[in-house]
User: Fold this.
Amino acid sequence: MPPTRDHDTPDDQSQQHDPTDPPTVPIRLPHRPRNARLRDLRLVLRHPRPSRPASVWPCAEDELREGTGLIAQWLLTAIIKIVTGYTAPGQRMLLLDPAPHITPPAGWPSAAAGHRPGHGPYAGLLEAGWAVVRLGRGVHTQTAAARPDWFGDSAADASSESESGPGLHTPSPAGDHLGAGGTDRQSGPDTATIAHGRDRFELILTAAEPATLAALQPTDWAGLLTPTGTLAVITHSDNSGGWFTDPAGPLVRAAHHAGLRFTDRIALLRVPIRDTVPAVAGTATHSRPARAPGPPTTSVRHTQAHDDLFVFTRRTAANSDATSAVTGEGTSDD
Amino acid sequence: MTDRPTLPWPPSRPPQEQPPNPRLSVWPTGQRDPAAQLRDAGCVAGTDTDVDRIPPAVAAHAIATYTRPGDLVLDPDCGAGTVLVEALRAGRHALGLTSRRRSWTLARANVTAAKAAGAWRDGSVLDARPAMLASVRAAGLAGRIGLVLTALRVTANGADEQDPSPDRDHAAAINRLAATLTYCEPLLRSGGYLVVVARPRRHPDGSLLDSVTPLLAAGTSVGLAPVDRCIALTAGLRGRRLVTRASLDERRAAARARAVGVPTALTAHHEVLAFQLAHEAELAAAAAAAIPWPTEHNDTRPAVNGAEYRGWGRAA
Assistant:
């Protein structure tokens, strides 16, 4: 117990112990034998608990932690989960960012079509390259334009690439221009330029608005995947015009044409969902236009609290045979 | 004469089954495991044999979101009748159809149990196919249904029954559901909704079946407008963690798929697709764009369900 002192006494005097105070006795913490701790550690390292990915991933943080980057916190969390779930340390991945000037084709709602640098829910996608490097994966960033048949020759000017690995270059959301490597101008995927004589990518990851996705055609990049590679596409449904449009149909169809197999559709929660009341305060990282509340039971619309992650894998005969042999039974969660 | 003690009706619901405000596209409907949900709803034994049933928490959430007390809820392929039970518990009228003998018995028993527990709204189960809705027997239902809530049923109910059409094929099940939607569309009242709940399923080779796209096409082909897609969780939320309730078979299949280099996700949700009459969806969208509804800073913020407030009116 600290001694009571005069208020005029300076604070630094309070640190002195009275000689009549009992000596401080350290509190012994529960101690585990060192051998037991080492045994547990060896067991964990030898038999790591396999992650069990579910079809819903909570990606939002409880508290808003704004950083200096453009990328939303939930998107960075989702990318880290994707990278750790579908790649192993040492493997290479490709971060594919749509070119800033990609405009959607006619017919898409203008509110959902805007994709400007620094705006939109997926702004700063290439900043995730830092996190990927820290996870021990090699990362190759690419700013991709649309296919030439969408917008003509002018779209080809924005395609640039950069290579980053552990301790290598810095991915930049603005340009990806490298001082040493230079910039290759191309339109769409160029297998010879990117993967010439090198390993292909275990994971290709992109995130785009549904309208931009229709122009980007990420499934055209499937040729850069390894035989066990994964294509992950983050996008979302759109009901801004009062009608609901879902990106799954054209995306899955294009993937089948590209020889990919539709493996999963995962909901990425970008809002912390509580047991009872959703914690929506302080998580307005999504810059979509907010919908005005409508009359009850006349036009019930839900606020989008999730994005969709589409996962495709290369369709190889070995994989199909092996998987069909082990997943013959139906799935059930009841 | 002593008055009989009366239970408060409708009974208070667990807070997780209340529709949130604002409504989010992710429904926290998996806080209780399936057996506990059936127990809470007062369902009779054997209801769990209906593997394609809509979980009671999902049905309760949809009914609370899309209907008002006194509305009529229809399940054209009701199975064991979980939708009917939740509709009755929420103070809505309920009507179910099923052509399976065992399902009719279970659904009838569940309706009886709900009414014995205090539900006073009408609840009926008909031994009929959805095609009956297009006959003269259902002429009185035209324009009266507030919510059609049904599930995409792929597997047959029970192994001992003689199911005349065991739809084990996913595409055939969607075609059958599309026909059902055709019968249900004329029955919707103005402002009514049609909600389809589908569980994600996999092809025998492990790939995921895209159920959303054909269901949207089926609804659009019968003159309905898709207005929402929601995620009804079947996994429990524990803070930031999600506790999946996948079966042992599914866990084994996922582990083996991961072993061969094709990781697959355990099912933790049901897909919920909401449709509305096309012209009403257009009118509602136009009304929402033109009429400045009160914002959250105004004093006249609407209640969750069934509340009257300034400016309320049907777009149709």
Q: What stands out?
A: Chain B touches chain A through 100 residues (CB under 8 Å). The beta strands of chain B are 26-27, 72-75, 93-98, 123-127, 145-151, 188-198, 224-233, 236-238, 241-243, 269-277. Residues 101-116 of chain B form the longest helix (16 residues). The helical segments of chain B are 34-41, 56-66, 82-89, 101-116, 170-184, 212-221, 248-259, 278-290.
